[in-house]
Amino acid sequence: MLAFAGFVGLGVIGGDGSGSSDHAVAPSDASAASPIQTQRSLYVTGNSVNVREGPSTTYRKIGQLSRGQVVHEIDRSNGWVKLSFKGQVGWMSGKYLSSSKPKASVRFATSSSSPKCHPNYKGACVPIASDVDCAGGRGNGPAYVQGPVRVVGRDVYGLDRDNDGIGCE
């Protein structure tokens, strides 16, 4: 039968059942075993931002975080922030972090050479999405195009309101 008497601290019961400790952390050593202390929560503001082993782009990439993800600041150095994320610790450029939650990103299409451009439009890339609206208009997206765009097929998104063959003008 094992009995425990008022021992304060951390310890491991010996494998021989004797109750002796294989390793005990003395109260003065407890800070060395404590988890990383964070300063504050920050939000990722870039769409897809690399996390690195050290405070420079010369360090190896160890992860990537998306817009709106929360990280916890540990330290700062020369514009870089040491942070904890998903149980890991890494570095990210401070220009992609904010203490304010970022607004939803708005996608603007700019190039017609992208393979994700709708074939019924030319002059600007109209993305293939559930709905596309003209940038600056009253539409609610989720995708937007900066016009004008030429309609060369069926106007599936209704961008050419006056039916003259040019949308978002």
Characterize the structure shown.
There is one protein chain. The N terminus is likely disordered. The protein folds into three domains: 28 residues, no CATH class; 59 residues, SH3 Domains (SH3 type barrels); 64 residues, no CATH class. 2% of the residues lie in helices and 32% in strands. It has 169 residues and is mainly β. The termini are far apart. It contains one helix and 13 strands, in the order αβββββββββββββ.
Q: What portion of residues is helical?
A: under 10%
Please indicate the percent range of residues in DSSP E strands (runs of 2 or more). 25-35%
Radius of gyration: 28 Å
Question: What oligomeric assembly is this protein in?
Answer: single chain
First-to-last CA distance: 86 Å
pLDDT averaged over residues: 75
What structural class do helix, strand and pairing data support?
Answer: mainly beta
Number of helices: 1
Integer count of domains: 3
Taking pLDDT < 50 over at least 5 consecutive residues as the criterion, the unreliable ranges are 1-34, 109-114
Strand order of the largest sheet: 6-5-4-1-7
Strand segment count:
13
Strand and helix order: HEEEEEEEEEEEEE
User: What gross morphology would you assign?
Assistant: elongated
Main sheet makeup? 5 strands, antiparallel
Can you describe this structure in just a few lines?
The chain has one helix at 30-33, and strands spanning 40-44, 48-52, 61-66, 70-77, 80-85, 88-93, 97-98, 107-109, 121-122, 132-134, 143-145, 149-151, 166-167.
Topology:
Blueprint: H1 30-33, E1 40-44, E2 48-52, E3 61-66, E4 70-77, E5 80-85, E6 88-93, E7 97-98, E8 107-109, E9 121-122, E10 132-134, E11 143-145, E12 149-151, E13 166-167
Parallel strand pairs: 8-11, 10-11
Antiparallel strand pairs: 1-4, 1-7, 2-3, 4-5, 5-6, 9-12, 12-13
